[in-house]
Request: fold
Amino acid sequence: MSWNVIGQLIAVALTIGLTLLVGWLVDKALQRVAARHPETTVWPLLRRCRIPLQLVVCLSLLLVNAPLAQLFKSYSDDVRHGLLLALIASIGWLTNRVLAAILSAVFARYREVAEDPSRVQRVRTQVNLLRRATGAIVGLVTVGAMLLTFPAMRTIGTSLLASAGLIGIVAGIAAQNTLGNFFSGLVIAFGDLVRIGDTVVVEGQQGTIEEITLAYLVVRLWDQRRLVVPVSYFVSRPFENWTREDPHTTGSVLLHLDHTTPVPELREQFHRLLLDSKEWDGRDWGLVVFDTTPSTIVVRATMTTRNPDDAFTLKAQTRETLIAWLRDHHPGALPRVRTGG
Reply:
């Protein structure tokens, strides 16, 4: 082994050692800053950037000193090109990590000072979509920069520049659904149509918004199934959002009973049920004869709750408890089928 090769190997080893040292020093510095400013969450989040930062430093040093290229003289150009591609990818990775850390820190700070839970959910949705949008943009720019390092791609790009208008039209037509979903996602985020945690009714099915991306939303249904809906659906079609402004909900239960039903006693029993229920928020309630038919009366019981989930539970309890009470104390109040004698 020649001294030149040994020297290049030593240079590579020193480069790796210097990279590890830089990463360790930056990590220690972030730890100290985080300890001095515990109220700021950005510094612990930036520690996640250590690996991409070390890659950027290492690849930059290898490109400047070119020890690897000199080790493989026959393929020196290919080695340099490979190092350049890896450096561009590492810069994109580092940029994405830094932006994600900043956005997460901004949301964490806002969550600490905000008093309105609905506004917190709104900002959370916007930050998540911004993180995905910036990640997609950084990814596209990184891939574009990597492609431009190939001479053939630069030549093709120059020749295609003259027909950029036609290509733009064709690309727009081909990707109109994708672009439509992208802009619909931005409308959802900043138009405050839906937020993560909102209770919605989509295609007759009630569920909770679990995830929002630039292309689709995931709605968790009551039986733990997930309904995946394109974001364009919420922009182009009507839907119910039960918690957009205020999560408080008024639930109602209809009971078909006999005309002999003692409504005042049933009303008192319903009130006792609400007083013993943790789902009732105490704002309002009522029990009235809502309608009549030749054979029954329709009694409607209404109650207010803090959220739709409590409303579902309380409505089920109301049906079960009131029917059981009528069965035990006033069995004649339950509807009967009368036949002529």
Q: What stands out?
A: The beta strands are 199-202, 205-212, 216-221, 226-230, 240-241, 249-257, 280-292, 297-305. The radius of gyration is 32 Å.
